[in-house]
Amino acid sequence: MTPTRFGWSAEDVYLVASRAHSLFDQGLTHQAAALFEGLVAVDPANLYCRHALAAVYLSLGVPRLAVDQLSAALAHSPYDAETLARRCEALVAVGEMARAEADLAALRRSGGAGQIARLEARLAVARRGNHTPQLPNHQSDN
Predict the structure, then answer these.
(1) Looking at the predicted structure, is the pLDDT value of residue 141 above 60?
(2) 3-class DSSP state for residue 125?
(3) Which residue of 13, 18, 43, 73 is surrounded by the most CB atoms within 10 Å?
(4) Which positions ≥6 away from 119 have C-beta within 8 Å?
(5) CA–CA dist 43, 67 (Å, integer)
(6) CB neighbours of 121 closer than 8 A, spacing ≥ 6?
(7) Which secondary-structure segment (H or E) carries 94?
(8) What angle do CA 31, 7, 42 make, to 5 degrees?
(9) Which one is predicted more confidently, 128 or 102?
(10) What are phi and psi of 4, to 5 degrees?
């Protein structure tokens, strides 16, 4: 991999991402978000960092920000099945069913078979107006 913006190496990004992941695991979600936000500024095309930041945002209860991160990831890698699946779930969380359906259709076309059944079930629940289960929250770090 070539150096990222600001001259960071892939190893630099990995080390900070590892620390951010550790903070998230400890329930320090705001601190993890700050590190991952910095990492996506340094390495905007890094799918892991975008996915991780989206997961942190979902944990913090701000799914709109998760959608934004996953949309940015798709701008760099438009056919990535994992990113499509994650954004589909985030779109359901913000109630954007038409866009979620479009992501599910794109996922079917891209061959992301592993996620399709789970996402179809989640969309069916959301369409019926039932409460969509939330992702577990980590401990508050306020």
Answers:
(1) no
(2) helix
(3) 73
(4) 85, 88, 89, 104, 107
(5) 18
(6) none
(7) none
(8) 35
(9) 102
(10) -85, -175
